[in-house]
Design a protein that fits this description.
By secondary structure, this protein is α/β, with parallel strands linked by helices. It is built from ten helices and eleven strands. The structure holds NADPH dihydro-nicotinamide-adenine-dinucleotide phosphate (NDP) and 5,10-Methenyltetrahydrofolate (GUE). Catalyzes the oxidation of 5,10-methylenetetrahydrofolate to 5,10-methenyltetrahydrofolate and then the hydrolysis of 5,10-methenyltetrahydrofolate to 10-formyltetrahydrofolate. Homodimer.
Length: about 300
């Protein structure tokens, strides 16, 4: 292996210290801690783990965590009523509804019901619109975390050729917008793209957010490129479950200049970006200056 390993876990820990200081300052000024509400409908085991780690991290950084666990047969009306209550609750600065929701719940309607000022997941159409328009707003946690890692690794991204593989509202689309705002030349690839290997081979920055275990082959990577692997898939190998990314890590690390591991790369940054967004939302809601969280 020749590539530099981008240590998301360590970077997230450093950012966490700055967020904790900001949260404590917020509490001193307002008499209460920033509050994050996480809503989980149903009992998807992976979602349970994420929700638990989000609550634990919020408390660790001196924020208040409100966890709402609803049964899988919750109705749309019940869920919308909960969101309305959280919108009205002054102690709640951020609202995250864990996705995917069990069918037949309509996640779009639920997301649109969230107060955009509390949309710490950056999923509301108004948040997405602000990002495209270059206006201040809340940016989806995973792309925000990826951007922090890229800036830390590369400094200025201006002029670089970037490819984002995957175009979801949660990851791919906001990622491409952030890279464009950093003056990258951005290609967006998806399941209908032709000749993906040739497009990946031209990129200085590769962000893979597909959800297909190790589909990005090492030999596609341009020598010296920086690779950010968002994907997380559980695979059975040698009788053990293993968490792997969208990128064939071992082969890609032979060619890349820097690469994120899975686990320990993007995942910890997603959770820390959520904490970042909660503090930012809390400060904006109270008209307080947003602390400078860049290292
Ligand atoms: N580590 C972290 O913090 C996080 C990890 N994830 C992980 O990232 C992955 C992606 O998540 P998410 O964006 O929500 O997933 P989605 O399923 O919503 O989107 C997947 C995207 O990949 C595209 N795609 C699917 N197959 C191919 C293919 N063969 N070639 C090119 N593109 C393809 C799809 O294209 P099309 O639009 O044409 O269907 C779609 O745009 C998942 O593994 C998820 O678990 C997600 C969030 C956070
Ligand atoms: N409304 C909403 N917002 C989300 O941000 C959201 C969501 N729904 N639904 C599911 C995806 C997935 N996601 C992850 C978060 C952390 C890790 C993470 O911390 N992963 C660890 C490993 C954890 C493990 O071992 O399972 C790591 O990569 O090191 C992974 C994935 C957020 N998502």
């Amino acid at each position: 292996m020749t590539a530099h390993l981008i240590d998301g876990k360590a970077f997230a820990a450093g950012l966490g210290d700055r967020i904790a200081a900001g949260a404590s300052d917020f509490a001193a000024r307002t008499g209460r801690a920033p509050g994050l509400a996480v809503v989980l409908v149903g009992t998807d085991p992976a979602s349970e783990i994420y929700v638990r780690s989000k609550g634990r991290m919020a408390r660790k950084l001196g924020m208040e965590s409100f966890e709402h666990r609803l049964p899988a047969d919750t109705t749309q009306e019940e869920l919308l009523a909960l969101v309305a209550g959280l919108n009205a609750d002054a102690a709640v600065d951020g609202i995250l509804v864990q996705l995917p929701l069990p069918s037949p719940l309509d996640s779009r309607a639920v997301i649109e019901a969230i107060d955009p000022g509390k949309d710490v997941d950056g999923l509301h159409p108004l948040s997405a619109g602000h990002l495209v328009a270059g206006l201040p707003g809340l940016v989806s946690c995973t792309p925000l975390g990826c951007l922090m890692l890229l800036r830390e690794t590369l400094g200025s991204l201006a002029g670089l050729d970037a490819i984002v593989i995957g175009r979801s509202i949660l990851v791919g689309k906001p990622m491409a917008q952030l890279l464009l705002a950093e003056n990258c030349t951005v290609t967006m690839a998806h399941s209908r793209s032709r000749d993906l290997p040739e497009k990946v081979a031209r990129a200085d920055i590769v962000v893979a957010a597909v959800g297909q275990a190790e589909m990005i082959r090492g030999e596609w990577i341009k020598p010296g490129a920086t690779v950010i692997d968002v994907g997380t898939s559980r695979v059975l190998r040698d009788g053990r479950t293993l968490l792997v990314g969208d990128v064939d890590f071992a082969a890609a690390a032979e060619r890349a200049r820097a690469i994120t591991p899975v686990p320990g790369g993007v995942g910890p940054m997603t959770i820390m970006s959520l904490m970042h967004n909660t503090l930012v939302a809390a400060c904006r809601r109270r008209g307080l200056p947003v602390p400078d969280l860049d290292g």
